[in-house]
Design brief:
single chain; 66 residues; mainly alpha; 77% helix
Length: 66
Amino acid sequence: MPVLVTLAIGLIWWVTAWSFGIKAFDAFLLTVGMVVVAAAAMMLKPFMDQVLGKDVPGTEERGAAL
């Protein structure tokens, strides 16, 4: 869900920047960068929680079938 929110904010930024005269491709590159960072953060979050010793839910709590 955070990636979709980031995408929506990025597209709003893209249209707004384009209307102010910034090249469309340059504004879109920032949108792509924002989405890539959000996706990377979502993928790294479980590993960082484990490294930092935070409570990580077991497989039963995540919904994985055994």
